[in-house]
Amino acid sequence: MSTKSRTRALFDDVSLTGDRLRTIGLYAALYGTAFLFMLPYWYMFATSFMTRDLVYAEVPHLIPWDLTFYWYEYLLNNSLIVQWTANTVILAAITTLVVILIDAMIAYSLTRLDWPGRRAIFAIIVASFMVPGIVNLVPVYIIVSELGLVNSIWGVVLPSAANPLGVFMLVQFFKDIPEELEEAARLDGFSRLRVFTHIVLPLMRSALAALGLFIFIWTWNAFVWPLLIFQDDSMYTLPIGLVTLQDNLGVTEPGVIMTSAVVASVPLLLVFLVMQKHLVRAVEMQGTTK
Amino acid sequence: MGQANRQRDANANGSTLVDLSKSSTREWIAGSAFALPYLLIAGTFLFGPLLLALYMSLYDWNALDPAQSQFLGLENYRILLSDPDFWNALWNTVYFVVLTVPPIVVGSLLLALGVNREVRGQWLLRTVFFSPYVLTVAVVGLLWTELFNASGLVSYYLGGGNWLTSHDLAMPAIAVATIWWQLAFNFIILLAARQNVSDRLYEAAKLDGASSWRMMRDITIPQMQNPLVFVVIVTFVNSFQVFGQPFIMTDGGPSFSTTTIVLYLYDTAFTGRQFGYAAAVGYVLFMILIAVSATSYYFLGGDD
User: Fold this and answer.
1) Start and end of every ABC transmembrane type-1 domain (chain B) (predicted)?
2) What residue of A is the nearest CA neighbor of B264?
């Protein structure tokens, strides 16, 4: 693979020059695309550190020659962005906990416990994948408002927790782990609840981590539902706050918008860099289940 | 029934597990109890609403006092089929689907196959292509709004003025933002699928002197058929339901050229307060999506 052997190959064998050209083409295509993919990020970060003069220059600037934290200070002092960040973290954490708990419970019940109707119920859950979330937009809103959950965090948590995806992922996962441990524990006189909390949950740690990370990111980014349910600006999550920031200012102020976008995306980009493996796994679990 | 269960347990676990089999009633209770929390939530916020939507679509729904709602039968659906705004939204959505599905599917496949090669910086490339996956549609929409602005990067280098206020360029601009954002999921699925194809198949083909094009056609694509069908259907379904990007970037404009079907549904329901009519729009979209998924499944053929 070294350049030396490649160069020699170039002279030795004419047919290999095609190979070499192809390799160069491959690298150019991959890294060229990667460069284009990175440009929007760069623009977002760079703009958030630019002075007003640079932001409004006639020629778009890509490098913040004049560094400033003006936009960050402006956001801190003129918007509820700290509150929105806290709301987002709380909403995502609660939803993740609820989803992991109820999904693990039903997945355990569907794969390990024998009760009438469980096959039919699993079939219905699988079929519900075909239901596009948007069909339910109106009726779920009606139900949430009948229950008095508009402008309440539960008005977002509960509809999100109805998503069948996690149930399906965990059922697939359960099928792959052997039952022997649980049976041994049952023989030792463990109750089903104790088997669940002491044997099953620890065994599923990695699957639950993958699902949990996925749900956390999903909820952090959720748009339509928080937009409908949260009606006070003190309740907004980051995605909703960002969009109202654009509306309230009338004219879009690129510095403010790009800075708020940085605030909303950096936490998740960092989580992503650290826990990419789990997230890849969560996505792969979805791909193999259908 | 209890007899049958006991029998099955005995067969499955060996006859020694008296302890486990003695209590099938308790097993029923435990089983239902563990399933109950999810079933309650899903019943209230997933399955129940699906029926409620069908019911609502037959009424002129009164949100303030549902008892006052007026039964219309299929009138909402009849009005809908002759509603030019609905057709406009449907065609806009189809246009958006055409602009996004092929690039997202083909692009993610090419990137997955490329990154799967022995390239330097594989981790870096994978990270870059996967990263937009963790962004919210709000960030994607606002970021690309800036890029497509009259003084933004895209307009400056490619021309076109402000793409988002141009009748012809607004939808392509939304499509570009969407492709950048949505490629990631498919890319990861297809990369995993490609890594699952056995190397031996390629070694055997190489011994037979197969060209790389033939290996692609006869090994890679057939071996990846199921994940490919999955990716095509998911991308179709997602693109048909596009909402956030036009909501943020154009609010359906200019002159309704980017009003997609979900944006239309949202406006009808939450601005126009025509909940029954909006429910009918939702059901028609549902039928379209089932038809599209079934058709792609039928033509592309999946094994399971």
Assistant:
1) 90-296
2) A134
Of chain A residues 220-249, which have a CB less than 8 A from chain B?
Answer: 220-224, 228, 238-240, 242-243, 246
What mean pLDDT is reported for chain A? 87
Question: What burial letters (b/e) apply to A11-34, b meaning 16+ CB within 10 Å?
Answer: eeeeeeeeeeeeeeeeeeebbebb
Quote the CA–CA distance of B32 and B20 in Å, as a whole number: 17
Residue A178 phi/psi, 5-degree rounding, is: -65, 150
Task: Name the CATH code of domain A80-289 (choices 1.10.3720.10, 1.10.260.40, 3.30.450.20, 3.40.50.300).
Answer: 1.10.3720.10
Torsion, CA B138, CA B140, CA B142, CA B143, rounded to 10: 150
For the domain spanning B78-300, the CATH number is 1.10.3720.10
Q: Per-residue pLDDT tens for B245-302?
A: 999 999 998 999 999 999 999 999 999 999 999 999 999 999 999 898 888 888 887 5
Residue B13 predicted with pLDDT over 70: no
Helix (H, G, I), strand (E, B) or coil at B70: strand
For chain B, the structural domain boundaries read: 2-47, 78-300
At residue B41 the predicted structure's pLDDT band, cuts being 50, 70 and 90, is very high
Model confidence pLDDT, tens digit, residues A269-290: 999 999 998 899 888 888 765 4
Closest CA to A222 of A236, A211, A232: A236
> Which of the residue ranges A42-51, A128-137, B276-285 would you say has the lowest mean pLDDT?
A128-137
- Count of helix runs (H) and strand runs (E) in chain B: 17, 2
- A 152-191 residues with CB below 8 A of B? 158-159, 161-164, 167, 183, 186-187, 189
CB A225 within 8 A of CB A159: yes
Side chain identity, residue A289: T
Assign B2 a pLDDT band (cuts: 50, 70, 90): very low
Q: What is the DSSP letter of A50?
A: B
